[in-house]
Amino acid sequence: MVFWISGWRISQHDDELVNTIALQTTEEWTVERLCNQVLACKELDVDSGELTRTTFDLYVRYGKWIAEFFGRKTLVSDLNPADFARFKADLAKPKATRKNGKVIKKAATRKLSHVGLATKMRHVRMFFNFALAEEWIDKLPWGAKTFQLPTKKAIKKARSQKKDKTASHQEILKLLEEADDTWNAMLLVAINLGSGNTDVAMMTHSDIEEDGWVEQARNKTGEYRQFKLWPETLEAISKKSKHQDGLIFHSKQGSKLIPAETHNPITKGFSNLVSKAGIKRENLSFYSLRHTFQTVADENVDLVATQVIMGHSRNSISDNDRGKISDARLEAVTDHVRRWLFDLDADK
User: Is residue 174 within 8 Å of residue 277, measured between CB atoms?
Assistant: First the structure.
């Protein structure tokens, strides 16, 4: 049995629950029940492999947030645009991270970015859009303006005022100098492939072929990725002992580094490494290495190959019609980034 939203309990594989959803009337839908039943359907997507457990756990977090803000027993039919205007304002406020009711991380001092707010709002909207699509409710409970995502113009303007998210090759080399074997390999994987925190944390030894090629689906998007590891990256990974779970990277205590709701070990470890290297600054994070890969790889002017390496979503007609990208094109992109990082001549 699984508790998702406090106070209601269902079976993870309760077919009767799914079959009776259509029998509910609009008036009977409380916020708690709507969130739980959306999560029940999403859990089935996890079982079928269509949704990752990490994403599902994030949806659980937002389901609880929705229920706590509006009230678990509040009828969805009683919600109105003004309620969602207040919720949008609440989402925009920096929040402390709590675990078992205790604050384990203080709220950020700076205001939430437009991109961060848009991400939160999309997670909230998912619940109600899902319910509308399944005809559990007959309309969305917000207005055209009260729960509108930040505009592209506002996001673009805010981004133009921020400091660069990319890392210079001098900064990356300083990090490599200060890194131990684990962090040396993690940094190289990130800049070699344009991988984010979760991508790196979930990489396994079995993903890597003997010749250094890797084919996998990106955890966040499920998009196909293919790339070749540099000799430096392969050498660094070879120093890592194999664990029973198959993952390449672990903490010194042997625990996984996969980001969780209340703890992101890679973010914390990177912050410590940056301080040690003496290069701490705003907007420099482990994810900066993914931004950096994209920026440098774009200079190679093979955007399609870069998309395949990074696992970007590709939904255009040309993407669907296009055949497999050649190994030579993919390798040319990663070689270009390698030359930039290590300041190598083109023939090396």
Answer: yes
Structure token digits, residue 223:
């998009």
List C-alpha distances in Å: 59 to 64, 84, 94. 9, 18, 19
Rounded to the nearest angstrom, the gap between the alpha carbon of residue 18 and the centroid of all alpha carbons in its chain is 28
Domains of the chain: 2-160 (no CATH), 169-342 (1.10.443.10)
Q: End-to-end CA distance of the chain, in Å?
A: 58
**Range with the lowest mean pLDDT among 54-68, 198-212, 214-228, 267-281?**
214-228
The phi-psi region of residue 223 (left if phi > 0; otherwise alpha if psi is between -120 and 50; otherwise beta) is beta
- Angstrom distance (rounded) from CA 252 to CA 118: 36
Give per-residue pLDDT as tens, 13-72: 445 444 444 444 445 899 999 999 999 999 999 888 888 887 898 899 899 999 999 999
Cβ 160 vs Cβ 306: under 8 Å: no
**DSSP for residue 93:** S
**H or E element, residue 9:** strand 9-10
pLDDT band at 115 (very low <50, low <70, confident <90, very high): confident
Query: Residue 221: beta bridge partners?
Result: none
Q: pLDDT at residue 107 above 70?
A: no
pTM to 2 decimal places: 0.68
C-beta separation of 203 from 191 below 8 A: no
| DSSP states along 142-208 | S-TTTTPPPPHHHHHHHHHTSPP-S--HHHHHHHHHH--HHHHHHHHHHHHHT--HHHHHT-BGGGB
